[in-house]
Amino acid sequence: MEQHAIIIIIVILALTFDFINGFHDTANAIATSISTKALPPKMAIALAAIMNLVGALTFTGVAKTVGGKVADPMHIQHGTYVVAAALVAAIAWNLFTWYYGIPSSSSHALIGSLAGSVIAAAGFGAVNFAGFVTIIEALIFSPLLAFTVGYVVMTLIRYIFGSFSPHKLNSRFRLLQILTAAIQSFSHGTNDAQKTMGIITFALVAGGFQSTLDVPYWVKLSAALAMAFGTSIGGWKIIKTVGTKIIKFEPASGFASDISSAIVIFGATLIKMPVSTTHVISSAIMGVGSAKRFSAVKWDTAITMVTAWVITLPVTMVLAAISFTLVKLIFL
Prior knowledge:
mainly alpha; transport; phosphate transmembrane transporter activity; 12 helices; transmembrane; elongated; transmembrane helix; Phos_transporter
């Protein structure tokens, strides 16, 4: 297939992934504010869409990490086909987990799929394992950090505001949740949309359309708009899981969850590392719930989510390897 044609297919697949990511992952960013009735659902989704768009247009460091740390796009034969196969696998896994309402990681799905497709195409030696491990470390440690930050923030809130009347406390934190929902959606855009930018840029370099991992403006804008549009659709199944099935939210705990996860996600963006916003937000919620009391967390739901997180990387690697094998049989 001509390189121009495969690039067009890749862009369509990548923007489809970003659109799905919008209603799959961004649901996490507004689930708490909807659960506590700080924002009506339609207003929360509109706010998230706008702030994701702004965040996605603001940074590109994570895109360069995704585009260059897993493998070198200039040294992989049939690199554009590798990217196409990876995107098909990542989209399939995202749709599967969305259908069952499981807040799994789009980041894990994309990174795992890219690695699996590269291995199928060029062997294990083609993977930059130092860079790959660095990304995996960020994906693993960020939820642990989010849990800790959530626990500390909620503990401080209980210590500082413990003597306040519950009614006044709830009304004030409900207002603050509007701000934290916006901040969390912005931080989500700064990290998640960049992964799609990175994968498109990887394909452009692999196809010989550019020689650097600098993200073209049209890639930034299209990825940002795709995620914002996906966000505007709303991921109700994920919102229900995150907003009701981990802990019972009050405005104070919703605020603590939002601000804790936003701190971790934006911190990762500043050091140009991709993290799973799903993992970070869910872990912050668990930390907040544990600070109230350990039994406040619905650990059966948490275990199901963690299981999905653990299996996402190997499953998507296998799916991508199968996907590339089929692409190779058909087109190469």
